[in-house]
Amino acid sequence: MGDFVDLYDKIKKYYGFSKQELRSLIITIIAVAFIISFDEWGTAEFNIAAGFFNLFNAILITAFSYLIKISAQRIGALQIGYRCEHRMWSWGILLGIILAFVSNGSIWFLMTTSFIVHHMAGHRLGWFRYGINYFAIAMVALWGPLANVLLVLFFKGLSGFISNPLIEKAILLNALMAIYAMVPIPPMEGSKIYWGSRLAYVFSAVSIILASLLLIFIDIIWLAILTSFLLGLILWIVYYIYYERYAWSGPAGDSITATVGGRKVQ
Known about the structure:
By secondary structure, the chain is mainly alpha-helical.
């Protein structure tokens, strides 16, 4: 109960967005909504009324998806004593818009946002208090794509009761947001997870990407989740056996020598 009260107090004090974050978030939402509604400005000919209507609908689901993702990361960061500041990736947004024009809206490039964390030493009681911890940052990053997968599950369940193209678009949007987030290049969340823990990255990347893809194409939710979890676990074990246990150098710089493929690896 005390942990919940403490987290609630942190949310009240530190959850709010700065003016720069709000401006970046608004730009990101409008840009992504434009990308995912690019090919919906009329069918046979250009229709500005239909275009703005579809853009408005796209803004609604995009804003909801990004707010849930960002909130999950901000609250996850606060829980372990960090303050999360979100930033848009201008080059990613520009590339997404260019690809939308080039592909006539058939390519959704959604590498658009990232974050940095601020250390709050007074709120790190019970955790590693001295400086930024890479593993903790990895866990904060992981909350983003996990939130997107949960939204895919939510909209997938909703689609079983309500047949609506906007719900189908929300499913695809969140699935792609989760997949793009796991790409291990800066500034995406995948790079932060990778540098925080390679083992965590292998399991989470396989599970999240596979779950997102399966949930797009099949309607049996439990099968998609179970399959992605099991394959993620299997590949995690394979990666550990054939690479990670030989790559780890040990504490205090002490190297470990092992034999891989008939040769010694240090």
